[in-house]
Amino acid sequence: MNEPDPRQGAQTAGPRREVVVGDHRYLLLGTAHVSRASAEEVRREIESGAYDAVAIELCDARHAALTNAGELAQMDLFQVLRQGKAGMVAANLALGAYQQRLADQFGIEPGAEMRAAIESTAAAGLPLALIDRNIGITLKRVYRRIPWWQRISTMGALFASLLSSDKIEESDIEKLKEGDMLESTFNEFASESAAMHEALIDERDRYMAAKLLAAPGARHTLVVVGAGHLKGLAGYLEAGMDAPRETIERLDHVPPGARWVKWLPWAIVVLVFAGFALGFSRSTGLGQQMVVEWVVINGALSALGALIALGHPLTVLTAFVAAPITSLNPTIGAGMVTAAAELWLRKPRVGDFSTLKSDVTRVSGWWKNRVSRTLLVFVLSTAGSAAGTYIAGFRIFGQLFGG
Question: Domain map of the chain by residue range?
Answer without folding.
Answer: 9-76+105-252, 259-401
